[in-house]
Amino acid sequence: MTKIETARSVALEVLEDVFIHQAYSNIALNKHLKGSQLSPTDKGLATELVYGTVARKLTLEWYLSHFIKDRDKLDSWIYFLLLLSAYQLKYLDKVPDHAVVNEAVELAKVRKKGSEKLVNAILRRILREGWSDIASIKRKNKRDSIAYSLPVWLVAKLKEEYGEERAQAIFESLLVRNKASIRVTDLGRKEEIQALLEASTSSLSPSGLVKDQGNFAASDLFTQGMVTIQDESSQLVAPTLDLKGHEQVLDACAAPGGKTAHIASYLTTGQVTALDLYDHKLSLIQENAERLGVANRVQTQKLDARKVHEFFSKDSFDKILVDAPCSGIGLLRRKPDIKYNKETADFASLQEIQLEILGSVCQTLRKGGIITYSTCTIVSEENFQVVQAFLEKHPDFEQVTLEHECKDILKDGCILITPELYGSDGFFISQFRKISD
Hints:
This protein is α/β, with parallel strands linked by helices. The chain has helices spanning 7-21, 25-34, 40-55, 57-65, 76-91, 97-111, 115-129, 140-148, 152-173, 190-197, 220-223, 258-264, 279-291, 308-311, 345-361, 384-393, 419-422; strands spanning 180-184, 200-201, 208-211, 227-229, 248-251, 271-276, 298-302, 317-323, 365-375, 397-399, 410-411, 414-417, 427-434. Strands 5, 6, 7, 8, 9, 10, 11, 12 and 13 form a nine-stranded mixed sheet that branches. A four-stranded antiparallel sheet has the order 2-3-1-4. The longest helix has 22 residues, at 152-173.
């Protein structure tokens, strides 16, 4: 039989990449959509199917467990096809149930003769018997884990950190589709660009525009460097450095370069040195800087941020940004696959790396200079505990209290944005000053 390309067949291939080969869903999806002949509508459906199935994987697996005795006896692709179909039956109402079943049966027939009987039987049984009730799960954390498709350890962690009620609001917000968010590079044209893109202004960032959905990267404004794709929470980082224009700035963990370019936009005679470990990521930073017209103020260098003090002398920098490698728990809405590949143990080892980077870069900062430390996570091991540990170990530094007009994102002198507050990524920003005697 010839292979027929449909939104569902493409979605199934992406899910195989994500669940078998641990590919990132956004990268795998882009790769498959680029090589496909699908119409824009079908590309939209494939995107919905991939993100929806990945985001609700634990929930869907629980539902299916009532209809499948031993999933290990099934070919993995059949199991993923059933997950995909269960997602459509349970959460999407535009396509009639019988059409979902027929399409799954056709797909199975093309992949492996005879498998369509099993797929048909399971899906028809679901339609006949209906879904089990998640409320019947006795243990509270297990129930929330299944309802919100989060591992039990993460449910427990966020409840411990934020209390039952706020944790619940965070869980719910993670199942809401991510907004498209951009930074306008010329604020004088913000209103005009907002009207052109039919976007809303960001509640968090003065340079941000947001839209429920939109492919901003395809617009001429993006190509011309008038806008760049950057979450509104991450747009708050560069302004905390309070740049005057002449400074030597270090961006210690810079790729893909969104914050590097934002820093460079404030510089006139100054320069930002952007570090990363990998050549292809340094190229990304360079490309970003060129598109945004700030390449003359950006210098890239291949270097491990933990070794900065070995390569740069003391007093090399006026300002430093450490946007540290982290667990990315704040990005779960945008990168739902993250939650299935993490363990609590990660937090301790990440904290060690974060403190190593801070301990290295702080040796190259002049007196009176500033370090901004940020992460895209919302757990205290990588945030407040890092701030505390750094200050205890470096008595020549003091914490700088950060301000913002949205008071609900301020905590202990830092900015902490959880995803339910403004529908943005979860984010943390703090700051230190080197004491001048």
